[in-house]
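Q: Hi! First time doing this. I have a protein sequence and I read that you can turn it into a structure. Is that right? Here it is:
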Amino acid sequence: MLKKRIIPCLDIKDGRTVKGVNFVDLRDAGDPVELAEIYSREGADELVFLDISATEQKRKTLANLVYHVAEKVNIPFTVGGGISSVEDVDILLKNGADKVSINSSAVKNPQLINDLVAKFGSQCIVVAIDAKQINDRWIVHLVGGKVPTEIELFSWAKEVEERGAGEILFTSMDHDGTKNGFANETLARLSEELNIPIIASGGAGNMQHFEDAFKDGKADAALAASVFHFKEIPIKDLKEKLQANGIPVRL
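A: Yes, that's right. Below is the predicted 3D structure, encoded as structure tokens:
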């Protein structure tokens, strides 16, 4: 059985790691390179870096940061934010990223997914989907959750898979930063309808929430930020608990 992955997420703004609630009220959480090094040592399976203001400010993700992270860590890491072309991805991969995450640019230009997969392979193309429940429908949002679309989560996720993406990173905006648990019912439906891995994001508050995401949500990986950044959940302890409760993880 494939091992479940634990992924710390570092949201980057102006070169610093930040964390908010429901995508707002950001506070500083430390230096991203230092945090990456710590998580790599503590047993994280992968890392995700999201330049959360890159799309909004029409900037490119900092290739410089990627280079410095690659120097310090020996686990795979994904970079996202402001990526809108084959050239953007080429620069990031050449600087040491293992995967890239696209979100707003994929919705605006779905052909980008096909183009990136054709050039770099599906294994390094992650499509992030930020969605929020509106009138009992999960609606996809863009630009760091600020811009709602008319697109429904499950149909978009299916299209993303059909276009060749290797993974989906699903963030429930309703759960983000609340520490009340992941959107497990929605995760389970995504996992049942799709054949590619689903990364759960949004809502981790305690170790039980991770276990629930894997057992009830059928997620392939669980991503979290503040519980790791502010040392509320040690990664080693979390993995030992998951293993003890029958969830396969890499120790």
